Amino acid sequence: MEFKNKGDNINFIRQRDYIWEKYLDEGGLGKTALIRDPVINEYFVCNKYEPQLDNNKLEYYENFKNEIKIMHKLFHNNIVRIFNYYLYPSKVTGFILMDYIDGENIESYLNSSPEEINNLFGQTIDAFSYLEKFNILHRDIRPKNILITKEKTVKIIDFGFGKRVLSSNDFDKSISLNWLYEKPDDFNNSIYDFKTEIYFVGKLFETIINNYNISGFKYTDLLKKMVVKSHEERIASFEQVKDYILNNNYIFDDYFDYLEKRKFQDFMDKIIPIFGEINTDANYFNNIDQLVNELEEVLKNNYLDNDIQNNIDILRAFVKGNYTFYSKRKVDVDSLKSFIQLIRTSNTEKKNMIKLGIINKLRIIKKMEIQEEAFNEDIPF
C-alpha cells in the first residue's frame, strides 16, 4: 500500500474479529455486551447505541459520539479506558469498545469491606482531580458508576452524560437526572461545574458512611467542606481536595516514615528518567502484587551486579505496551531491592498508596499519538 498525498484514507484489509460472550445490560439507549478478543484472550465491554424510542434519537446519538470524544482523552488508572469505536451514521448507531471491569459498585463493596473506605476515597478523588485537570465533567455521579475491582482499584465508568468544558458558558446544568442525593444550591442558579461534582462525590461517600455505619474514616472534616450546599462556600476544586489529602497529615505522615519515603523517592527518581515517551494505547500496571513479582524476577537475574543490565526488563513491569527508553541510564540493584522490600512489608492500604504514587509519577511522561484502526460498515449485532 502506498500513500501519495497527505490525508489519503487508510483501509486495512483485515478487520479484527471478536468472540460473542453475553449481554451484560440493556437500557433505553442501547445494549452492553461482553466480547472477547481471541488473539490476546482479553475481554472487552461493547456498548451499542440503540435507543428503543425514536424521540430525540439524533440528540442522544450526538451524546454517544460526545462520550467517545471525552473518553479518548482519558488515560488514568482509575477511569475506564476506551480502546476503539465504530460509528454507523446512516443507521444512527455505533459501538464503543472499552475495558471490561470485573467488579462491583462502590456502595456494595464498602458494605462488605468497610475497612477500605479511606483507600477508595483517595483513589476516587485522584480520578476526579484528573477529570478536572482536563476540563471534563462526569455529570452522573452515583454508586453504579464507580466500580471496584478484585484488586481494590476504583474505576469510574459511564461518561454518557459527560461534558468537556471549553468556556465559561459551558458551566450550566443542561441535563436533568434523577439524582440520588439532596441537590445543592447550584441547581437553583442553573450551575453545574466542578464544585457541583465535588458536592455529589462528597454526598456519595457521606451517604455510604451513614447508611452502613462505617467507622475509621479519616477525612470527616474534609468531607464536610465538600458537601456544603452553598456553591460559594464549598471547597473550590478537586485539586484542593487532593492537596488536603496529601499535605495535611491525612495519609503519608500517618502511614510512611522518613526512610520509607526515601526508598520510594530514590527508586522512582531513577526509573522515570529512563522512559522517553509512552504510546497513548499503553497501560500502566494494574496489580501492585504482580508488579512486585515481576520486579523480584528482575532482581534475581541481576542480584550479583551493581546495576540492572537491561532497562527493558524493569520498565515492562510498570508499563504494558509500547514506549521509548534510554538504555544507558542505570538503576542500581540496591535501590530496586529496597523498593521491593518497601512494598512487601506494607499493608493493603499502604500498597495502594504506593501504587497511586507510582502512577502519578508515570503520568508525567510524555505520550505518543498512534493511528486509529479502520473498520467496515457491517453491523455485528
What's the CATH topology name of the largest domain?
Transferase(Phosphotransferase), domain 1
The total tally of domains equals 3
Number of strands: 15
What percent of residues are in strands? 15-25%
**What is the CA-atom radius of gyration, in angstroms?**
22 Å
At CATH level 2, the architecture of the largest domain is Orthogonal Bundle
Q: Order of strands across the biggest sheet?
A: 1-2-3-5-4
| Name of the CATH homologous superfamily of the largest domain | Transferase(Phosphotransferase) domain 1
| Low-confidence spans | 162-176, 249-253, 370-377
Cα-to-Cα separation, first versus last residue: 31 Å
* Shape verdict: globular
- What percent of the residues sit in helical stretches (DSSP H or I)? 25-40%
Q: On the 0-100 scale, what is the average pLDDT?
A: 84
The CATH class of the largest domain is Mainly Alpha
Sketch the topology as an H/E string, one letter per element.
EEEHEEEHHEEEEHHHHHEEHHEEHHE
Structural class: alpha+beta
* Main beta-sheet annotation: 5 strands, antiparallel
Helix run count: 12
